[in-house]
Amino acid sequence: MLNYAREEVCERDTNKLHFKKVRSILRDNDFYEQMSNYKILGTKNADFREYERLAFMKKNLEKCSEEEVENYS
């Protein structure tokens, strides 16, 4: 959302949040400025990383059946 890379907020090679990394971001005043300037609507001009694309998500979801997801949720 604010263009932080996964490596900046997650543990290495995972999607697990690394709180110490995030805490340092939250202490930075730039973070709050970015939040206040964020535009929720409209086109996004930034380049998307591979893990931010729909095709990447679809590939990961192929391994799960709808029934498994329903049972988990």
Question: What layout of secondary structure does this protein have?
Answer:
Layout: H1 6-9, H2 19-26, H3 29-37, H4 54-61, H5 66-72
3D structure, described in words:
The chain is mainly α and 73 residues long. The protein has one domain. The chain has helices spanning 6-9, 19-26, 29-37, 54-61, 66-72. The chain is extended and about 45 Å long.
Q: Can you summarize the main beta sheet?
A: none
Beta fraction of the residues?
A: under 5%
Question: Given the helix and strand composition, which structural class is it?
Answer: mainly alpha
- Low-confidence regions: none
As a whole number of angstroms, the C-alpha radius of gyration is: 16 Å
The domain tally reads 1
Key features?
49% helix; 73 residues; 5 helices; mainly alpha; 0% strand; extended
Give a quick precis of the structure.
The chain has 73 residues and is mostly helical. It has helices at residues 6-9, 19-26, 29-37, 54-61, 66-72.
